[in-house]
Design a protein that fits this description.
Structural class: alpha+beta
Shape: globular
CATH topology of the largest domain: NADH Oxidase
Number of helices: 7
Strand content: 15-25%
Helix content: 25-40%
CATH class of the largest domain: Alpha Beta
Distance between the termini: 25 Å
Radius of gyration: 22 Å
CATH superfamily of the largest domain: NADH Oxidase
Order of helices and strands: HEEHHEHHEHEHE
Number of domains: 2
Bound molecules: flavin mononucleotide
Length: about 230
Amino acid sequence: MDRARLVAHASKWFSQDNQRDLHSRSPSRLRITKDSANLVVMNDTIKTILSRRSVSRLSDPAPSSNELDIILKAASSAPDHGSLRPFRFVVFQGEQKTRFAKVLVEALQNRASSKGSTPTEGQLRKENAKFERAPVIIAVAAKIDPYSKILEIEQLLSAAAAVENLLLAAKSLNYGSMWRTGEATYDSYVKKAIGLEENDHIVAWVYLGTDSSMQNEPRDPSVADLVTYWTENT
Ligand SMILES: Cc1cc2nc3c(=O)[nH]c(=O)nc-3n(C[C@H](O)[C@H](O)[C@H](O)COP(=O)(O)O)c2cc1C
């Protein structure tokens, strides 16, 4: 629908009922509200997207196994050129987080020793504690099919889209999250430990849990400096 028709449509509904719930007409429960300057079309999906923020410290409760299942389904619904399903999700929770922290520490030691050095006590402690920052961590990887006609970068982008779906699905179920990377992300020893091959890529360590601080306010992003509407004179 073009903008003029959208505004006309919104005006019609707004005048009939200020907070009309169109659930029966639309799966996204379209709600139309009005501020002083503009007509604004806002639904639950848009609200979830606009209010998602990263949360660096997450606590219990973690998503339940049913919730995790739906979050992963949402992640795997990302756009995927060629239907390769190039994303993989490795879930760490409970004791397994502590065990995997040892892999991260070993990987750090290997990286340092390949440069002829050793990590400091502080670096080792930090690496060992990383997975304590959330009750659930999900490594999201791009499983690359090198023989596909779909370019590797597109397989990678699809996995990145899966990450964003995952963050938004978690947010919509009232869980906090954070997309993290760091040196271990690109470390062959770490990739192998989670069942990946050399040409696969870890694209994110998604930290998931409950945001008890609620410190990060939703942004009100301005897009004016990011967007141009192309004309022949651009
Ligand atoms: C590919 C990628 C990797 C990231 N890696 C890290 C990271 O290792 N550590 C970190 O603090 N933030 C990292 N971030 C940024 C945060 O996830 C977050 O998006 C950023 O701080 C902006 O905050 P917001 O998510 O609340 O908008 C990464 C983001 C992306 C897209």
